Amino acid sequence: MKLCATTVIVLLALAGNLFGQEREFSRFNFAITLSNSWQLVTNLPARPGVVATFVDAAKIRQIVLVVYDHQASGSLDDQFISQFERGMESSGAGRRVSGRLIEVRGIKSYERLGNVVADGKPATSLTQVVPVQGRIYLLQALRIEGEASDDPEIRNCLASFRFITPPVAQTGPSSNASHFRTILWAGFTLGIFGGLAILRSRRKPAAPPPQGN
Length: 213
Description:
The protein is an alpha+beta fold.
């Protein structure tokens, strides 16, 4: 019996290390789970809308969580997506590879895959836009020299996103698409491009010590 109990404890510990623990952001009404190898970046300047930035141990992957309060109404429709894509392209967010409608916790949402360049290296971005009444959530992932959309840890993290209290979905046609475009564009620029500097700075080797005479 003791052996069985010990085995169960070990398996639970391994599972916890693999899947990580859920992190709640109660102020913004959501929670998300990351692998324990990912770290919260705490030495960043405050940026509007950015709730948290995480990087993996190898410093090649990043996830940025952005939340914007807004007064615009309307659901995620063709006009919403068109304005969003225009904002992404004009912000220098890279070429769109694909876009599709998805469902995130019962909310009609949009997922965009794109190609970007980080410090001269090819990188891929994965952005999920989740509009609810009064707020827009952006789940933004980046991977250097790899496919963010095919990365299991990134996908598992995004799939773990949940609302602490079920929100009200946006309904009706978009009434202020230009407002949506502005905040989504800003969210991507501040989140992904702001985070690129983190990955770049942490991947650069330390400068060699000065040589003596």
